[in-house]
Amino acid sequence: MGKVLNEKQIEQYHDEGFIVPIRVMSEDEALKVKERVEEAEKAFPEEFNPENRNNLHLTFMVLDELAHNTIILDAVEDLIGPDFSLWSSVMFIKNPSTEHFVSWHQDATYMGMTSNDFLTPWIALTPSTEEMGCMAMIPGSHKQNILPHQDTFDENNILTRGQVVKDVDEKKAVNLILKPGEMSIHHGAVIHGSKPNKSKQRRIGFALQSYCPHGIEQIIGKNIWMQIRGGKRNDRDGLQLRRPQFDMDPLAVNLRKIANENYSSILYHDAKITRKY
Ligand SMILES: O=C(O)CCC(=O)C(=O)O
Fold first, then answer.
1. Phi/psi of residue 124, each to 5°?
2. CA torsion sign, 82 to 15 to 263 to 40?
3. How far is the CA of 159 from the centre of ligand 1 (A)?
4. Mean of the pLDDT values across residues 110-114?
5. What pLDDT does 277 receive?
6. What percent of the chain clears pLDDT 70, i.e. is strictly above it?
7. Kind and range of the H or E element at 94?
8. Helix crossing, 70-80 with 7-16: angle to 10°?
9. Which residue's CA is the closest to the ligand 1 atom numbered 8?
10. Are residues 142 and 50 in contact, defined by beta-carbon separation less than 8 angstroms?
11. Which fold has domain 7-267?
12. 107 lines ligand 1 (CB under 6 A)
């Protein structure tokens, strides 16, 4: 038994590459978080839009609080141990009746690290159902190496490069259905994707992408890490992020700008096209 996860959940993560669902907060609390997110979105539309969706935890208190939520961190610790930092975060919003989708991919492909053994909690701020384009995963696929990905840059594909793994046996896919306030956790190498949101409501998921044990090093580009638990990372460049003190704290805004530039130079390393997100 871990701090939050039971033996069966820990086993499921190691066998299948994901766990679902894990309750982080009540539905009422999740609704309040969603309201705070949507207020931030209204107040700062330039800072908070589908093309500027990365690292929002660096500038908005509500998302910084999620990145430091004790239940989420205890669950992460149950899986990767007590020393870890956060690489980045991505706000995945799919508006009602839109064509946006996420092709089959493995997160670690373009993250430029020495290991794939890291994980992403994905927190549902609305329901996430099959009709709404929930994530789907291929159980056990994290046990393979990183497979060849083809960059498509498809305009409806909301992955950076629209990268896709071909010939995935979709019959094996498991839908990760979540209620507001629940999360899934997935491994850096598990094959996953999501279909368009056909429903009449927004699907909002916040991906803490990813918590990485300190032993993993960045070998492509320079990432600036948010230290989360345990001893300090021993980075070549020694850069570390600081938590925002209030929404749009100017120092935090500047750090987010640098973090997003680094993020982009890592994810688009050697790509033919660079998109805005
Ligand atoms: O939100 C989605 O539909 C996809 C998210 C995803 O691919 C991820 O968090 O790794």
1. -85, 120
2. negative
3. 8
4. 95
5. 85
6. 98
7. strand 90-94
8. 60
9. 207
10. no
11. Jelly Rolls (2.60.120)
12. yes
pLDDT value of residue 236: 62
The tokens 């539309």 sit on which residue?
A: 45
DSSP 138-205: -TTGGGS-PPP-EE---TTB-SSS-EE-SS--GGG-EE--B-TTEEEEEETT--EEE----SSS-EEE
With the most atoms of ligand 1 within 8 angstroms of its CB, the residue from 116, 134, 175, 192 to mutate is: 192
User: Amino acid identity of 222?
Assistant: K
**What pLDDT digit, counting tens, does each position of 49-75 carry?**
888 999 999 999 999 999 999 999 999
Tell me the pTM.
Answer: 0.97
Nearest to 218 by CA among 88, 118, 115, 121: 115
* Nearest atom of ligand 1 to the alpha carbon of 107: 10
Burial class of residue 169, CB neighbours in 10 A (0-12, 13-18, 19+)? exposed
Q: In the numeric block, which tokens belong to residue 183?
A: 């999360």
Q: How far apart are CA 188 and CA 209, in angstroms?
A: 9
Question: Tell me, what's the pLDDT at 49?
Answer: 84
pLDDT exceeds 80 at position 41: yes
In the block, tokens 């004790």 appear at 70
